[in-house]
Structures are given as C-alpha cells and as structure tokens.
Amino acid sequence: MDPVDALREVAFRLEREHADSFRVQAYRRAAKVLAGVDDAKREILRRTDAWTDLPGIGKKTATVIRESYDSVPAYLAQLREEAEPIGRGAQELLDALRGDLHTHSDWSDGGSPVEEMQHTASTMLGHDYLALTDHSPRLTVANGLSAERLRTQLALVAEINDSTDGARILTGIEVDILDDGTLDQDEGLLADLDIVVASVHSNLRADRSAMTRRMVRAVSDPHVDVLGHCTGRLVAGGRGTRPESKFDAEKVFAACRDHDTAVEINCRPERRDPPSRLIDLALETGCLFAIDTDAHAPGQLDWLGYGCERAVERGVDPDRVINTWPVDDLLTWTDR
Fold first, then answer.
1. Non-local CB neighbours of 47 within 8 Å, separated by 6+ positions
2. How far apart (Å, rounded) are the C-alpha atoms in residues 127 and 130?
3. Cis peptide before 274 (omega within 30 of 0)
4. Are strands 129-132 and 226-227 parallel, antiparallel or unpaired?
5. What separation in angstroms does the CA of 34 have from each of 11, 23, 60?
6. Distance from the first to the final alpha carbon of the chain
7. What is the CA radius of gyration of the chain?
8. Can you tell me whether residue 292 is helix, strand or coil?
9. 232: Cβ–Cβ under 8 A, 6 or more apart, which residues?
10. What is the enclosing helix (H) or strand (E) of 159?
11. Model-level pTM?
12. Hey, what's the torsion of the CAs at 86, 89, 94, 95, to 10 degrees?
C-alpha cells in the first residue's frame, strides 16, 4: 500500500469518527511531508528505518509508513474493522448520491486545502462532483471570502479541474442571507458560480415575521440554488445547543418550491437540520432537496449517510434530491 495513501486514510477514518483534531492532523501532516520526498530518498529511509528523521514523522506515523510497504498497516486495518456504517438503512439513497453540494476548505473555516477535499471525495468516496462553498465576506469569524479572494479561488478550482482526474469541483459559495434578505456577495459573481447555498448565520433570534420576509426574499433570488440549514439550530456538540429560528415555514417552503430552490438536509450531527416535521412539510409542499455534509474537513465528507437516513425515514424520493442527478443535469438546473 502506498504509505502516503495509508496516512491519508488513517486521517480520514479518524476524522469520520469525530476524533480529536490533533490526532487527525498528525497523520495528515505526515502524509504531506512524505508526499514531498522523492522515491530515491524514500528507499534510503526504508532501508535504514529512519522515517522519524523526517520533520513531523513520529513513532506512530512511522509505524504506518513502515508497515504499508508489506501490507495494510495494522492500525489502518483496525480502523477499517471498527468503522461503524453511516447510512444504515439508507444505502439505496446513499448509493444514488453523485456528490456533495456544501463543503468548506481552509480558504474560509475548513481545515484542509481544496486539493485534499477533492482527493478524498474522489479516492475514498467515489464522488462525481464536489461543490466548494466557502463562506461570504460578512462572516468574518469564518474568514469569509471577499469578491477578490473568491475570484482567486475560482482560478484555482479551474486549475485543479484541468490538471487532475476524479471528482469535478463545482464553483460555489455559502452566501450569508443579510437582515433584509439580500445576499452577501457581488451579484455578478453569484451569477458565475455553479452552486449558491444561502444560509442565515446572524440575528438568528429575529422575530418570526422579519425572519420569514428575510428568508422568502433570499430563496426567491434567481441566483440561489439551495437553502442551507434552515432553522440554524444546534442539538449537540462543542458549540453547545441553540434553538430553532422562528419563521413561517409554509411561506418559506412555498417560495422554495415556486422559485426552484432546494431545501438542504444538513448532515452534520450537531445540526440535524431541518427537524423531521419540517422535512415532512417541505415534502408535502413539493420542494426539492439537497443532502449535504457541510463538511469542514475531508473525513466529514463521509457523513452523507446521516442525512440519507433522515431523508429515507421521512419518505423523500431520490429523484427529488438534486445531488442524485448527473452533473450536466444538475448544472442545467442551476443555470435555469
């Protein structure tokens, strides 16, 4: 087994299981260091068993490297064996998903480069596509992208798509819905993106009528493709809990239906957003859905099963989930 791939997979599997970030990053850093070592030097290090001479390589990562030359490293084999299925009971829908439409990189508040996210989506998960949707500028706490930084990112995405095989990176953004329902990014730039996810991140305790007007205006915008984590709630996790925002869900979902904006089923375990009753309402209203991880790290890309379980439980048909569609059909729809 290639030792770089082995280190990357260990990091992926630890991250998938919510391991502490320092453990994950130790293996990911080791993979990056080893990837920069040419074959001749690797052979010398292998013969002398001097892997720990490399910066960032410790005893545990060195063991993974050493064992990878002969077989699957024991620690990786253990992680594979212990891995709990994500999406049990929803395998048909999970298999139908062709990609993920809400992900973050280290350009905003994610933990890994775009290339690492794309590599994981391709090699570990077999995705056809992956939308890169880093935050918009108003969300300074998440290092949101100014118009200038977003344009620079678009050039990088084009370069990666041209130079690598595997999952196609779709250009995108998670754009903040401002208090008046307008969007936190240049309109011309939004028109150029493949996927626009619009989410509320501020003033989540606004009164019901104000929040309803705000969300209806946003999902009615022709540039918006997906309404992200609609209630903003948190049900668990290190950030504590947060109640749902108050809004007229019937009006908001009717606007989503009428303006062809998909309702996101967010896969993050601490969100479980929308609540089940609102998935039911969106389904009854005739909305489309997007099942998205909102991943901020490569291992989190495997959390799609959490959302699939909830969708199947509520009776969502795969045909109504836009990321079951082939990329050409998806992009025809988003360019509508």
1. none
2. 7
3. yes
4. unpaired
5. 14, 17, 14
6. 45
7. 21
8. strand
9. 199, 200, 201, 204, 242, 244, 245, 273
10. helix 147-163
11. 0.95
12. 120
Residue type, 251: K
Question: 12 and 295 in contact (C-beta within 8 Å)?
Answer: no
Q: How far apart are CA 70 and CA 127, in angstroms?
A: 29
The answer to whether 264 and 229 are in contact (CB under 8 A) is yes
What phi and psi, each to the nearest 5 degrees, are found at residue 266? -80, 130
**What are the contacts of 116-120 at 24+ separation with CB within 8 A?**
116/28, 116/298, 117/295, 117/298, 117/301, 118/160, 118/164, 118/166, 118/167, 118/169, 119/8, 119/166, 119/298, 120/8, 120/12, 120/298, 120/299, 120/301
Output the tens digit of pLDDT for each of the chain's 336 residues.
999 999 999 999 999 999 999 999 999 999 999 999 999 999 999 999 999 999 999 999 999 999 999 999 999 999 999 999 999 889 999 999 999 999 999 999 999 999 999 999 999 999 999 999 999 999 999 999 999 999 999 999 999 999 999 999 999 999 999 999 999 999 999 999 999 999 999 999 999 999 999 999 999 999 999 999 999 999 998 888 999 999 999 999 999 999 999 999 999 999 999 999 999 999 999 999 999 999 999 999 999 999 999 999 999 999 999 999 999 999 999 997
